[in-house]
Amino acid sequence: MSILHKAMTIAGSDTSGGAGMEADLKTFEELGVYGMTALTVIVTMDPHNNWFHNVFPIEMHVVEKQLETILEGVGIDAMKTGMLGSAALVELVAKSIDRYHLRNVVIDPVMVCKFSDEIMVPEAAEAIKRLLVQRADIITPNVLEAAYLADMPQVRTVEEIKEAAGRIKELGARYVVIKGGERMDEDAAVDILYDGKNFREMSVKKIYPSYNHGAGCTYSAAITAGLANGLAMEDAVAQAKAFITAALEHSFVLNKFTGCTNHTAYKVYLNK
Ligand code: PXL
After folding, report:
1. β-strand 52-57 against 34-46: which pairing, if any?
2. What is the pTM of this model?
3. What is the pLDDT of residues 118-169, one digit of tens each?
4. Do 125 and 119 contact (CB within 8 A), yes or no?
5. How many Å lie between the centroid of ligand 1 and the Cα of residue 167?
6. For the chain, N or C: smaller number of CB within 10 Å?
7. What is the 64 CA–ligand 1 centroid distance (Å)?
């Protein structure tokens, strides 16, 4: 008999497989973690209209039943959130974290998608800020989400990232990691991890060409897997940075519209 640590993702399905719960499950698997999903929405892409994304919500009581299955029926070592899609769902997630005393809670505050920089569902974003940041062991915004959460007009430099991390920490998250990524003004992709005392800067040269669909989901899923396996936060984040860097270095073209991070790269190319 062996022990396999367990993680849950509460997230949407990216039917095309690169992001969402598909990215989460693949990442859990690569890092040796047993994955379970509470599905919130199904996202489809229109091959006849420029890969336009349509979002189909799952009924609330069905999400509740999924959470009951996982949290009462099995139990978890860590969890993450992804696309939640409505304020009501954010409220349900907050209630579940409290009710089941969940630990190793990774909040990926999915508010924007690569295809648009607009906040997708403003009431859901507001609810994440009000209810989920304070319940996060770690929150993993990109620079757009960080600007929203920190109430700043923009976050594009290392200094602005540090300012935003401080403000988000004040909302109650235990750790904040802001993903600089391609939207930064710098040549490097700089992530900053902040624990309330120290800023840890993790910098890699920007990778071109890079197909980065699913990068955010993959990164937060890798942190979740590390925590499920018992790593300390700093080590889980460092492992996740290595995982996502390999996934970006070996990213691939999916079709004429987009390309994805390569979830197999950490194992296949780095022999991890
Ligand atoms: O990358 C953000 C994201 C998260 N979750 C789902 C998605 C996407 C982007 O397409 O489809 C389900």
Report:
1. antiparallel
2. 0.97
3. 888 999 999 999 999 999 999 999 999 999 999 999 999 999 999 999 999 9
4. yes
5. 26
6. N
7. 21
Q: What is the pLDDT of residues 1-44, one digit of tens each?
A: 889 999 999 999 999 999 999 999 999 999 999 999 999 999 99
**CA 145 to chain CA mean position, Å:** 11
> What is the whole-number distance in angstroms between the Cα of residue 176 and the centre of ligand 1?
21
For ligand 1, mutation pick of 43, 116, 251 (most atoms within 8 Å of CB): 43
Nearest CA to ligand 1 atom 9: 113
Rg (CA), the chain: 17
Which residue among 22, 42, 45, 110 has the greatest number of ligand 1 atoms within 8 angstroms of its CB, and so is best to mutate? 110
Contact 224, 100 (CB under 8 A): no
- DSSP H helical ranges for the chain: 20-30, 60-73, 87-99, 122-127, 143-150, 158-170, 215-228, 233-249, 265-268
List the residue whose alpha carbon is closest to atom 6 of ligand 1: 20
Q: How many CB atoms lie within 10 A of CB 112?
A: 19
Cis amide leading into 209 (omega within 30): yes
Q: Would you tell me how many other CB atoms lie within 10 Å of the CB of residue 162?
A: 16
**CA-CA-CA-CA dihedral for 157, 163, 165, 166, to nearest 10:** 170
Q: Is the CB of 217 under 6 A from ligand 1?
A: yes
Helix (H, G, I), strand (E, B) or coil at 123: helix
Per this entry, what is the length of the chain?
A: 272
Number of other residues whose CB lies within 10 A of the CB of residue 54: 12
